[in-house]
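Entry 0007
Protein: 4'-phosphopantetheinyl transferase
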Amino acid sequence: MIENILPSAVASAELLAYPEDLRAHPAEEALIAKSVEKRRRDFIGARHCARLALEQLGEKPVAIGKGERGAPVWPRGIVGSLTHCDGYRAAALGHKMQYRSVGIDAEPHEALPEGVLDSVSLPKEREWLRTTDSDLYLDRLLFCAKEATYKAWFPLTSRWLGFEDAHITFEIEHRGGGCGAGTFRSHLLVPGNTDDGNIPLTSFDGRWQVSDGFILTAIAHT
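Output (structure tokens):
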């Protein structure tokens, strides 16, 4: 599913059914030695997907460490993102010479828990939700897009990005029967100076899809 909303040059892999014989890479085991079983499966599954994507890019399927704020540490010349939720794990990777960053997120296609929306959204976003008629759980889609935005932002800036620091707008290309797809733009509301000194970030453009009970969002920033 995730490949549908990513450019063809971005390698991706996803895992819905979890193989019972799947094990952590030996060099990653120490990172999850004290984790509960669900956390272990999410970690192992997402990194398994990342190694499949690395092979698609012609790279060695190496161990993937954890950096600042738990961000994955990619091999030199690679950018990417991991995601997982109940029943789904995925990775998307690209070559740095083609993409500055990649951010993906997956969420179950269901409403946000009560009381969460106000803490993860801006007044303009809530107004859009109130005035848009849809059979999709657009509140969860908004949250999913915010998560993908942060994952695209952090590798470039090494700074936190709060939910209130980006205004997300959406285009809906088609919908019906609990499915849908379209685009979104993340308008950054804070200075976007980057670690590499390139042109400051002002926005990210992404794509989204709802199908098979999951919401997926993806940004491949050039």
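Curator remark: The chain has a mean pLDDT of 96. The beta strands are 11-15, 65-66, 72-73, 78-85, 88-95, 101-108, 166-176, 179-188, 203-211, 214-221.
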